[in-house]
Design brief:
This protein has 5 helices and 9 strands. The chain is of the alpha/beta class. It has one domain: Collagenase (Catalytic Domain) (3-Layer(aba) Sandwich), CATH 3.40.390.10. It has a 7-stranded mixed β-sheet with strand order 1-2-7-8-6-4-5, covered by helices on one side. It has a two-stranded parallel sheet with strand order 3-9. Helix 2 packs parallel to helix 3. The protein is globular, with a radius of gyration of 17 Å. It holds the Pfam family DUF2927. InterPro entries: DUF2927.
Length: 256
Amino acid sequence: MDARCYGIPCAVLLMAAWSHGAVAAGEAHAMASGLPALAMAAPPDPAGSRPQWLARAVGLFDRGALANEMNVRRPLTKWTRPIDIAVRGDAGGDWLPRIEEIATELAELTGEGVTVHDNPLWAGDIDVYLTNRAGYWPFFVDPIDGRRDQPFTCIALPSAVGGEMRSSKIHINAGALPPQAVGACLLEEIFQSMGFFGETPDDPTSLLDDGVGYQELGSMDRLLLRTLYDPRLAAGMERAEALSLAREILEEHLSR
């Protein structure tokens, strides 16, 4: 989807397929070396009291949940059933506890069952592959400059039909990234795989800002997840109806 390289030069692959209401999109990064230009524990809260966050929250929802990374409008997209996360790869065991923490928080925020499985024989709804092999490149990813002498870092390939999430494949090269960047990749790609395909590079209050590597969800991210998975918002709902309802839901949350 988007170019999340944490302030390090990268090569980006964008792939999209639209057919009969189906969408698949991917991202890939190649970085030379170094640490993220900016890394934070969690996105900061917006200025002002919570009721004053409404306009910003509506804007984030619109750009994150109702558009893609190219700011092309799309219907509201979400999981409509319990989610199985499969963790695999030679580095999978190292990151399994963190993925379980993320899953627990997602289940609480969305009301959907989210279960993590260690190296199952079957593909997960969200399938997470982590490796410590610094030279790893997924077979389905090509750098835009054609060069593979720079390491691949991470990619997310979510797919949906009619606004219903069907699967997401996440590949992360932990051998080419410092642990802080691996943690940020995990969180952001899983967050994206919940239905947030857009970007807000000018707003650091959310994971939707791809210029920062965040280790935890921020207040806005939790608010956006609760809103997207409110049962009043149906998968496949078009932007005008979805945004009107989302504003009402956001206002309810922020007034509490």
